[in-house]
Design goal:
Blueprint (H helix, E strand, L loop, with lengths): L5 H15 L4 H18 L11 H20 L3 H4 L5 H14 L3 H24 L19 H19 L8 H16 L3 H18 L7 H11 L2 H9 L6 H19 L10 H8 L15 H9 L1 H24 L8 H17 L9 H20 L12
Helix pairs in contact: 1-2, 1-5, 2-5, 3-15, 5-17, 6-7, 6-8, 7-8, 7-9, 7-16, 7-17, 9-16, 12-14, 14-15, 15-16, 15-17, 16-17
């Protein structure tokens, strides 16, 4: 091990540790804190890479500035000040950009995340034997909430699915085992937002990898309908039921969120104030008088912090997706040597955002950290393997 690379490797170990312990925020926060403290030592001589990461760093800077501006503009700035803790989690993106060196390290981290997700899923499935599994006691593994559980599994699931469908990737027994366990746990969580996002992600995967297999989807759906337990089918059916109370509640929350944005479009009503102010905007027929959030990542950001904050969030996603799509095209498409990584990144980010239409998963620290890690990957991979004489960005 080259002596000059030791600081980075120590920082990378701490960074990896915080990702692989998302099932315990206390441990994850501790390791991330150590990684941040070690950053001046670990990142020495590496900040010159910032020019290559300009698009996503600009988006991150705008997101951060608007968060701080929304706190200052809040009607209760001291209460909103608690939201500044998000800056700590956002360091996951910065550390990922500067600590991950190459494709090999990126693949090891992706594999590690998938293995941890499989272990979390297995822990959730064992809860069936402890009386969990119905709508009132949903499985959640070692995590604090079933939606956090399904959100973490969803990101890993799409990264894993892209690897399994890549040439040669299907030969890995442990990946197949992890894939089966993770998907069983996602189904068992009874989390409809994750189901919808997973369905969108897997259909997109089939369309891009082997579109002829789309013909088998109706048959697979019929088999599932015939064999699935009645409670699971009932839960699936409720996705399309506009009279379902939780569906109607989300419609009411969306209407309240729109009113919040309309009233304060620039800086929002203030970070961490949606829960407190919701009764003021609540539809009279809404099932609940109070809600913890608006169950929509996009509306939550806009309502709390204003439309510019939402634009900055979308810019983060667009920056990473643009690089992933561009590099995939340059390297021969989804069947290129790194096509599994490019496709996994695109599918994982797309699925996280589809789920975000029905759940505030961006506000879930565990899910957010995995998404931030995925956001960093395209820039790291593109910078570690460039065709000779070709710039990473056409606009440079």
């Amino acid at each position: 091990m080259p002596h000059q690379d030791l600081p980075r490797r120590v920082g990378l170990a701490l960074f990896a540790g915080h990702l692989l312990t998302v099932f315990s925020l206390g441990i994850s926060n501790g390791l991330l804190g150590l990684a941040v403290l070690a950053a001046p030592w670990a990142l020495r001589g590496r900040l010159g890479r910032a020019a290559g990461y300009r698009p996503i760093l600009i988006a991150l800077g705008a997101y951060t500035i608007w968060l701080l501006g929304a706190i200052v503009a809040s009607s209760e700035p001291l209460r909103s000040l608690r939201a500044v803790s998000e800056l700590f989690s956002l360091s996951t993106l910065v550390l990922g950009l500067f600590l991950i060196e190459d494709e090999q390290e990126a693949r090891r981290l992706v594999d590690g995340v998938c293995l941890v997700a499989a272990a979390i899923a297995l822990a959730g499935l064992t809860q069936f034997f402890l009386g969990y599994g119905d709508i009132d006691r949903r499985i959640r593994g070692p995590l604090s909430h079933y939606m956090t559980f399904s959100g973490v599994l969803l990101v890993a699931d799409l990264l894993l699915a892209a690897r399994l469908t890549h040439p040669g990737g299907w030969k890995s027994p442990w990946r197949w085992a992890a894939f089966v366990v993770i998907n069983a746990a996602v189904l068992g969580s009874l989390t409809r937002s994750a189901w919808v996002a997973l369905a969108v992600g897997l259909l997109a995967l089939i369309s891009l990898r082997a579109p002829r297999f789309l013909l088998l989807v109706p048959g697979a759906a019929l088999i599932f309908y015939l064999l699935a337990p009645v409670p699971l089918l009932s839960r699936f059916g409720s996705i399309f039921d506009l009279t379902d109370e939780s569906n109607y509640d989300r419609v009411c929350m969306a209407q309240a969120g729109v009113e919040m944005v309309r009233e304060r479009p620039l800086f929002g009503i203030g970070p961490d104030l949606v829960k407190e102010r919701y009764p003021l905007y609540r539809e009279p027929t809404a099932p609940r008088f109070t809600v913890p959030h608006l169950h929509n990542s996009f509306l939550q950001l806009a309502a709390e912090r204003g439309l510019p904050a939402l634009a900055a969030y979308l810019a983060l996603m667009a920056a990473s997706l643009t690089v992933a799509l561009r590099q995939a095209r340059r390297e021969g498409g989804w069947r290129g040597p790194r096509g599994d990584l490019w496709l996994g990144i695109v599918l994982a980010l797309a699925a996280a955002n589809v789920a975000g239409l029905f759940e505030n998963n961006w506000g879930d620290t565990e899910v957010q950290r995995l998404v931030l890690f995925v956001l960093a990957l395209p820039f790291v991979l593109a910078g570690s393997h460039r065709p000779t004489g070709e710039r990473l960005y056409e606009s440079d």
